[in-house]
Every structure is written in C-alpha cells, then in structure tokens.
Amino acid sequence: MTSNEIEPPGHVEIWGRALVGMVPLVGGPAAEIWDGYRKRYEYRASQALGAIGEKVTPEQLQERLVESEDLDVVFGRAIQAAANSGLEAKRRLLGLVIAEAVLDDAMIDSASLMTDVLSQIEAPHVRCLEDIWRVQQEVESSGERSQAARGAEREINQRILDVGRKYPSPLLQTLVNLSLLDARTSWDQGMDLIQGLTTFGEDFLRELHGATGATDSSPSTPAGA
Question: With CB atoms counted within 10 Å of each terminal CB, which end of the chain scores lower, N or C?
C-alpha cells in the first residue's frame, strides 16, 4: 500500500540493457524491454496506491472492496488511469479520491465522476487550465474585469481570450465537455468565446495542486510530471 521509493528504470537503461545481448530482438532482449516497461507501469500505479495508503489501511481497503462492487469498479478504473498517466499530481489525486470513497459510501459517486474527469486529463490540459486561470486572476484582481458571483455569466476579456486561443480547439473542447472551462463554440467550431475556468474547473485545479502540495496562489506551478 506504500508507493515504491525506488525510482523505475529510465528509457535509456531499459533499452541499453536490452541491446547488450541483442542478436535479433527476441528472447532475452525483448524480455528486458518488457520487464522495464512493466516496472514503470507498476511504479505509476503504486503512486495512486500510496496516496490511498496515507488515509486507509490495507485491511480497510480490502474489506470495502469486497463489500461494494461499485467501489471495486471505480478503484480498478482509478488504478488503471494512474498507471497510464505521466502526470504525478493526477496519479496522487486518483488515490486520494478513492481513499475518500473507502471511508465514506456517500463519496463513491463523486469518486466515480472525478475518476472519469481525471482519466481524460493530462499535462497539456493542466497547462491550459493554469494559463487561463493565472490571467483570469490577474484581470479580476486588477479590476480590469469585475469578479462575477459564483456561477454567474462573466464579461468577455481580451487577455483571457488571447491566452485561451493559444491552445488547439480539440483540447479546449475536451475541457468544455468536462465542465472545466467556460467557453462557447462559434459557427466554425472555433473556441473563440473563452470566459475562464468554471467553478468546477477552479476547484479541480486546486485539488490537483493540493495533491502535490502546490499552492492555490500559484496556478502556473506545474502540477507534476
């Protein structure tokens, strides 16, 4: 239940070990490559498991997985998403939301929804959210745009539009579909009315930063790699 403290082998080490005995790429060398990548996969999964272990015991986890099929399913999806992700903050947050569900049945649905969102988010999406949020905070703290009430429609701001337009429409559309970004699609499917992060998007980014100890006041800080 604790994360592996030993760093996994790097790509150079994996391939280097394989090439030493390569005649063609069969037998031992192929096994070396497979073993190296399997260890990296397991290491990523272990970071989510480690985050769970910070909140619950192995016995608690095992008991709850047996009791609740819904929890068992979302646990499996979360560990799979963590193992496939290159984003450390995401891996840890997946573990933390599962731990909450282990401790409270009422959190299972929330954990399932958050796992769905996190499974579709990687570093480019987080960089986009952080860039937009940084500018959004700047224009609102300076009075350039008044801060709207929670959930209320906001004024269009050119600086926010400009930073959002640096990112490709498919990425922006993913964030809109996940309710993380407040933006509208124009007639040509371009995301040209970007108003900022949604309330859920702001909360999501705070949770992602919190998973690795980043501060809310520094949204541009990378959320892990």
Answer: C
